Amino acid sequence: MKTPLRIEPVIDIVYKLVPARPARRLPPDADENALREALAANPAHFAAREALADRLTAAGEIGPACQLRLEGCRLVADLMDGTDDDFVTLDWEDPYTAQALTMVYDSAEDHFLIGDFEMAAAMLELLADRDPEDHLNASELLAFCYGALEEWELFDETVALLPPDAQATRLAAYWAVFRRAETPAADLREAMRRDDPALLREWTATDHEVSQEYLADIRSKRPTATAAARHLWLRTEPLWRAFPEFPAWLKA
User: What is the SS3 string spanning 215-230?
Assistant: First the structure.
């Protein structure tokens, strides 16, 4: 079977992804049948794959949507695995290549949401290797995956790349202190109360409602710390289902 995807050089070690068959432009109103036909003709049509996955998600067909994204991710991963040069950087400025990288990230998020942190980490590592400028902010989610897997050396290296003042960076650090200590540091809760009261309130709350007020706040140009903390809880909730000890300890 002909490989549906290949890489072509742009400059030095920078490459772009190219479909074996041209990914024809889709009309904005393309229906599900048109999207499926485009994918059948060209499995590496990432725009059609993402649009179809979005349609399925909106219809509540989460499993098939995740499978579509996973298959797209595998196209990229298999191509990269077959590349001799370990220092290949993919060109984010190329729209088709950016679509493919986004597909990898979206599939990593799918696996993160179901608690498969090892698979999510592998996909995010692919992005870290091929997109060193981290256009999709994969390092943030990767840090949480490393914390879940107790890969502390990789966790430290990844957190060092994140903005130190970001809520997600500070949350990852608090959680790491808790997980790495045989007994929780006595001043951890006090440090959160002093430096990150919005995080502490959210992580000790009994409800994390997605209210209209919250949605308006988080979509605004300058979301409040409270809304940002709620958004972070919702984004990392799979961790607290898998590792409930941290929020339970904070509430105690």
Answer: HHHHCCCCCCHHHHHH
**8 Å CB contact between 198 and 192:** no
Smallest Cα–Cα separation from 203: which of 191, 211, 212, 213? 191
CA distance 117 to 34: 34
Contact at 8 Å (CB) between 20 and 5?
A: yes
pLDDT tens digits for range 98-124:
999 999 999 999 999 999 999 999 999
Place of tokens 């941290």: 246
Residue 23: C-alpha distances to residues 2, 45, 127, 165 (Å): 16, 5, 22, 41
87 CB burial (10 A radius; 0-12, 13-18, 19+) = exposed
Q: Which residue has the tokens 């003042």?
A: 165
The model's pLDDT over 196-249, given as tens digits with 9 standing for 90+, comes to 999 999 999 999 999 999 999 999 999 999 999 999 999 999 999 999 999 999
How do the residues of the chain divide into helix, strand and coil, expressed in percent and rounded to 5?
A: 60, 5, 30
What is the rounded distance in angstroms from the CA atom of residue 167 to the CA atom of residue 155? 16
Please, are residues 110 and 62 in contact by the beta-carbon 8 Å criterion? no
Return the H-helix or E-strand segment holding 11. Answer: strand 5-11
| φ, ψ at 112 (rounded to 5°) | -60, -40
The full DSSP string for 176-225 is HHHHHSSS--TTHHHHHHHH-HHHHHHHT-S-----HHHHHHHTSSS--H
Residues 74 and 93 sit within 8 Å (Cβ to Cβ): no
